[in-house]
TrEMBL record:
<dbReference type="Pfam" id="PF03403">
    <property type="entry name" value="PAF-AH_p_II"/>
</dbReference>
<dbReference type="InterPro" id="IPR006311">
    <property type="entry name" value="TAT_signal"/>
</dbReference>
<keyword id="KW-0442">Lipid degradation</keyword>
<keyword id="KW-0732">Signal</keyword>
<dbReference type="GO" id="GO:0016042">
    <property type="term" value="P:lipid catabolic process"/>
</dbReference>
<dbReference type="GO" id="GO:0003847">
    <property type="term" value="F:1-alkyl-2-acetylglycerophosphocholine esterase activity"/>
</dbReference>
<keyword id="KW-0378">Hydrolase</keyword>
<keyword id="KW-0443">Lipid metabolism</keyword>
<dbReference type="InterPro" id="IPR029058">
    <property type="entry name" value="AB_hydrolase_fold"/>
</dbReference>
<feature type="signal peptide">
    <location>
        <begin position="1"/>
        <end position="31"/>
    </location>
</feature>
<protein>
    <submittedName>
        <fullName>Lipase</fullName>
    </submittedName>
</protein>
Length: 379
């Protein structure tokens, strides 16, 4: 049976056609008449969601990145456009790459582009996200907008040339044959952390100095920073915590934790959410677990596949209804965990973790919950 991970590796190789592919761009376009549009679940928090994209250039590495900042927004957001999961050009490149022959439009998020920042006496904790191999920064939008709706600023980053991204000049980049290690990901993330410090100091880090929502920098509480990642991004999260103490707490979504040099000990809180790479069978994860010296917790959802902690668990079944994806192939993507239950797990557990360690509140992680019978605490 084809798994999501092996499919991803095959597609990355198939897409190794160069760093940039010029494609037509339609930003946030409405679905055409008769065109299907798949959906995302709504976040549950009390705050509206704003989002803005940043084009960042790391001149020391001759590298450019796209990032998105998601933030609690003021109540009046109606005049601001709804953000798509991805722009149309990069969305269709991604859908074609994973073998889904469909012209369905990208889902719409809960985010409003450039909406006013919510004014608050307190700054908001900041959480960074690092994506998986050959993917994109949108892949955990369910988690991202859930955190934002509960009062976090979340920064998602595309690892250029190891995923799908789109730049302000219309270039769409896809995975290449170049070798990108978790350490390359980690260097991207520490660079972004530096740019967030610029933003908090009142400077605009965007390469084109495009306008940013007023008060965005002032909303960042850089004394309370967390990070999470999926697959290779999980390893990236651990590596960033190895080298940068600005990150106070981290989550790894089913990462193999393989890198050279390898991850080392961490004395700050870390949550391991396992699926296809549990400690019992993945030596690198077992080794990483043994090196954790601070608060630690290992959770595993029964029936979870590698991608069950990101958006594919919700989106792939919808795409399957529009394509010729077989039941066996669908099971390879999403396992046996029901999408609706996966969404509740994605919304509840990352929020509970960051609430506990960045806000010092909450009890969901104290032990197994009858509200989540699928979630097992691994001793």
């Amino acid at each position: 049976m084809t798994t999501a991970l092996s499919r991803r590796h095959l597609l990355t190789a198939a897409l190794a056609t160069g760093a940039a592919v010029p494609l037509g761009v339609a930003r946030g376009a409405a679905a055409a008449p008769g065109q299907a549009r798949i959906t995302l679940p709504k976040p549950t928090g009390p705050y509206r969601v704003g989002t803005v994209a940043l084009h960042l250039v790391d001149r020391s590495r001759r590298r450019e990145l796209m990032a998105s900042i998601w933030y609690p927004a003021a109540r009046d957001t109606r005049r601001h456009p709804v953000a798509p999961w991805m722009p149309d050009a990069s969305w269709h490149a991604l859908v074609a790459a994973i073998g889904m022959a469909t012209d369905a439009a990208a889902p719409l998020t809960a985010g409003r582009v450039g909406a006013p920042v919510l004014r608050s006496r307190d700054r908001f904790p900041v959480v960074l996200y690092s994506h998986g191999n050959g993917s994109c920064r949108a892949e955990t939008t369910i988690v991202v907008q859930e955190l934002t709706s509960h009062g976090y600023v979340v920064v998602t980053v595309d690892h250029t040339d190891d995923g799908f991204s789109e730049f302000p000049d219309g270039r769409v980049t896809v995975p290449t044959e170049n070798s990108f290690t978790p350490w390359d990901y980690a260097r991207d993330m520490t660079f972004v952390l530096d740019r967030l410090e610029d933003l908090a100091a009142g400077r605009n880090p965007d390469a084109e100095h495009r306008p940013l929502p007023a008060g965005l920098g002032a909303a960042l509480d850089l004394r309370r920073i967390g990070m999470f990642g999926w697959s290779k991004g999980a390893t990236s999260t651990a590596l960033v915590m190895n080298v940068d103490r600005r990150v106070r707490a981290g989550i790894g979504f089913d990462g193999e934790m393989q890198s050279q040099p390898p991850v080392t000990g961490i004395d700050r809180p870390f949550l391991v959410m396992s699926a296809e790479f549990p400690r019992a069978t993945e030596e690198s994860v077992a080794r990483f677990w043994s090196l954790l010296r601070g608060w630690r917790l290992n959770l595993q959802a029964c029936g979870a596949a590698h991608g069950s902690y990101n958006d594919q668990q919700w989106l792939i079944p919808q795409l399957a209804e529009l394509t010729d994806l077989s039941d066996e192939e669908l099971a390879g993507w999403v396992g046996t965990l029901k999408p609706s239950r996966a969404v509740r797990i994605q919304q509840a557990y990352p929020l509970a973790f960051f609430d506990l360690h960045l806000r010092h509140r909450g009890h969901l992680l104290d032990g197994p919950s009858p509200a989540f019978p699928e979630v097992h605490f691994i001793p």
